[in-house]
Amino acid sequence: MDATWVVLLALVLGMSMGAGLSVFIFSAVKRGEQAQKVINPTVPDGVDQILGVLESIGIVLDASDNVLKASQGALALGIVRAERIVVPDVQTIADEVRRTGEPQTRRVTLEGARSGEITRILSVRAAPLGTRYVVVLANDLTESIRLDEVRRDFIANISHELKTPIGAISVLTEAIASAVDDPVQVRRFAEKMTTEADRLAALTADIINLSKLQANQALHMPELVRIDDVIDRAIESNAVVAGARNVVIARGEPSELTVYGEDPLLTMALQNLVSNAVQYSPDKSRVGVGARLVDDVVEISVTDQGVGIPKEDHDRVFERFYRLDGARSRNTGGTGLGLAIVKHTAQNHGGDVTVWSRPGQGSTFTLKLPVATGDDHVTPIPAARLERTQI
Predict the structure, then answer these.
(1) How far is it, in rounded angstroms, from Cα 95 to Cα 59?
(2) What DSSP element (H or E) covers 205?
(3) pTM score of the predicted model
(4) CATH annotation of 220-391
(5) 143-215 — its CATH code?
(6) Helix axis angle, 263-279 relative to 227-237, nearest 10°?
(7) What is the overall mean pLDDT for the chain?
(8) What pLDDT score was predicted for residue 335?
(9) Lowest mean pLDDT: which of 16-30, 198-212, 239-253?
């Protein structure tokens, strides 16, 4: 009997100790989970989804400034590395939010880490997220700032370019009024006025053409275009000017190549290249025009024997209103928009334009376009559809 009580007592004690041990282990596990949450906090619900759909740069920081979440943009621009913000100016904004408890917005300049990388300008906004977190958002303003600068420069350049012919016409009008009794002088002033009016009309036409090329979906009626026809029209339109200066325009062998695009735009671009070659070549020199197929690209080259272009200016010559020799360009009737028109025409046709040139050795401009394949039928385009095309 005594032995039975001993066994029962031992059983009760064992169950009690087991229950107590279970409670202890459960409590320890709970405390461990709570400690783990403090050490490795989780991002509030919904933040992952928001960062995933944001086009801007997004970063979430915990109480110790560890990066819990970062968008691809933050990683790509090198703002976040090894779960830390490595751009001091961005970290400073986050620190300011912790100190004040208020959202902060500033612009940050992000220098390129490697040679050749562009400097980026970011609009950074940081704000508290709950009581422990800070969210940092950034928008890349680099491209919009560049476009604003281009627009401002374009407007300033247009204003400057328009002043010359408008001012000249105004002066010539006064001169004609004062020389009304001198037919010879009136005729001379009238001819100069016509020249300035033509220059003004040319500038206006080029501005309109360039604006159309820069608009969305500039190619409204793409069709199969024969490159040989484009070359023939470009040479023909510059034949009179070239003949007056004894400049020979030599045409290469017919290529029988075709591209898809708008014939008037391609003709305008090539006419501008040939016109430039003639204008900047010395008298009694030679200009070459030809086309060839390189892989799947049609290359239309225009070569002159002019003064050449320094290497540092090769990219800039395609900028609007950029002139190597401003005085000579104006004397030849140039508007400074011809090569910009060529560049945008090439881009709208899925191609490019390049230049090879050395001072004293002339220049070669090459218009590169994807070759057309398939149907060889071409619908002729009336010449009346062409707007003014010479620069």
Answers:
(1) 14
(2) helix 183-214
(3) 0.51
(4) 3.30.565.10
(5) 1.10.287.130
(6) 40
(7) 75
(8) 57
(9) 16-30
